[in-house]
Amino acid sequence: METLRYNYAQRLLHWLIALLVLGLLAVGSLLGTLGFDGLKDLVGLEMTNQLYGYHKTFGILLLALMLLRLGLKRLFRSPVYQPPLTGFERAASLTVHTLFYVALILMPVLGWLGTATGGFPVQFFDLTLPGLVPENKELSKTLFQLHGIVGWVILGLILIHVSAAIYHWRIKHDGVMKRMSLF
């Protein structure tokens, strides 16, 4: 029997990841704009270290949740669209969702590697994770630049995704929003 909705675990994971990504992008843009010293001057050393620690922790959590989401996607079929999407809508949806998965896995990996090559601990709550790669300050700088670029890509994908959701909800009235809504 075909279903018109994702299962509850997938829907809950979607919204948890959405909130996590928005928070990470907000904090990440602050860290990237002000840098360590600028943020330290603004909020002090302790708060700066906490923000960096939280950003690392929640970035690793994002990676874990995205891998879980990818696993669930492989286990459970996607619900059917009713009414069916046009060819363009299907292609656009597949492209945006694929880019989301790639970017939301790549971004925390780049952050992890950038942190490790920068000689800093990779934190996940109170655990220090293995760095995986040797220290290399130049490589770290490049990895963090890529980390920031992927952040902008994710922001663009969010704008496209939300615009498409609003289009389906307010203009097409086709039930696409129900597929991922929690209730």
Automatic annotation (TrEMBL):
<dbReference type="GO" id="GO:0046872">
    <property type="term" value="F:metal ion binding"/>
</dbReference>
<keyword id="KW-0813">Transport</keyword>
<feature type="transmembrane region" description="Helical">
    <location>
        <begin position="12"/>
        <end position="31"/>
    </location>
</feature>
<dbReference type="InterPro" id="IPR016174">
    <property type="entry name" value="Di-haem_cyt_TM"/>
</dbReference>
<feature type="domain" description="Cytochrome b561 bacterial/Ni-hydrogenase">
    <location>
        <begin position="5"/>
        <end position="180"/>
    </location>
</feature>
<keyword id="KW-1133">Transmembrane helix</keyword>
<dbReference type="InterPro" id="IPR052168">
    <property type="entry name" value="Cytochrome_b561_oxidase"/>
</dbReference>
<keyword id="KW-0408">Iron</keyword>
<feature type="transmembrane region" description="Helical">
    <location>
        <begin position="51"/>
        <end position="70"/>
    </location>
</feature>
<keyword id="KW-0249">Electron transport</keyword>
<dbReference type="InterPro" id="IPR011577">
    <property type="entry name" value="Cyt_b561_bac/Ni-Hgenase"/>
</dbReference>
<keyword id="KW-0472">Membrane</keyword>
<feature type="transmembrane region" description="Helical">
    <location>
        <begin position="91"/>
        <end position="113"/>
    </location>
</feature>
<feature type="transmembrane region" description="Helical">
    <location>
        <begin position="149"/>
        <end position="169"/>
    </location>
</feature>
<dbReference type="GO" id="GO:0022904">
    <property type="term" value="P:respiratory electron transport chain"/>
</dbReference>
<keyword id="KW-1003">Cell membrane</keyword>
<dbReference type="GO" id="GO:0020037">
    <property type="term" value="F:heme binding"/>
</dbReference>
<dbReference type="GO" id="GO:0009055">
    <property type="term" value="F:electron transfer activity"/>
</dbReference>
<protein>
    <submittedName>
        <fullName>Cytochrome b561</fullName>
    </submittedName>
</protein>
<keyword id="KW-0479">Metal-binding</keyword>
<comment type="similarity">
    <text>Belongs to the cytochrome b561 family.</text>
</comment>
<keyword id="KW-0349">Heme</keyword>
<dbReference type="GO" id="GO:0005886">
    <property type="term" value="C:plasma membrane"/>
</dbReference>
<keyword id="KW-0812">Transmembrane</keyword>
<dbReference type="Pfam" id="PF01292">
    <property type="entry name" value="Ni_hydr_CYTB"/>
</dbReference>
